[in-house]
Design brief:
Length: 102
């Protein structure tokens, strides 16, 4: 029996493409997407030491679908409520994957 974090690590590892916390929540049947973000945050911290620096979690940051603003400086992982530039709430969420360096 795998823990949820192990399942998420496996998904991020096996995917060629970036995947969002929403997609992870859906495929693991988790209602609370925020708990997936906190899992990812935890995984990002631990995977580097688990892999001896060979693997890292990389993020494709959230962006505004209306004006293209990219949320580069995020204090907390999560889906931004609205764009600081154009005030749109139409936000493409962050997506993640695990990169391994050989
Ligand atoms: Zn915008």
């Amino acid at each position: 029996m795998e823990t949820r974090r192990e399942q998420i690590i496996k998904m991020l590892r096996n995917s060629d493409r970036f995947i969002s916390a929403e997609q992870i929540a859906r495929s693991l049947d988790v209602k609370d997407v925020r708990s997936i973000y906190s899992d990812i945050q935890h995984i990002a911290k631990t995977i580097r030491s688990l892999s001896g620096g060979k693997e890292i979690v990389i993020m494709d940051p959230p962006r505004c679908r209306k004006c293209g603003f990219v949320f580069k400086n995020m204090k907390h992982l999560g889906k931004p409520g609205r764009c600081p530039k154009c005030k749109s709430t139409w936000i493409e969420p962050a997506r993640f994957k695990i990169n391994s360096r050989r």
